[in-house]
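> call design_seq(struct)
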């Protein structure tokens, strides 16, 4: 048997999962973000984004980067 619960964006998901797992008969708790869109503020404040930025900065400092032409960048960003 399954149950669907919709949570507010501000919900502490890890706490909520721990709480549900304490209930008798609950075997597992899965969280899905299907169809979820994220604001730029949510993306910027996420741990994954911070890790990517740190890795990019480290790669740049260590000389691991590709140099791209202005034409390629214009084509990526649809500049004409």
């Amino acid at each position: 048997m399954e149950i669907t619960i919709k949570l507010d964006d501000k919900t502490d998901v890890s706490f909520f999962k721990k709480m549900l797992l304490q209930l008798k008969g609950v075997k597992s708790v899965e969280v899905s973000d299907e169809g979820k869109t994220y604001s730029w503020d949510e993306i910027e404040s996420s741990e994954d984004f911070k890790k990517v930025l740190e890795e990019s900065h480290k790669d740049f400092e260590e000389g691991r980067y590709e140099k791209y032409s202005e034409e390629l960048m214009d084509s990526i960003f649809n500049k004409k």
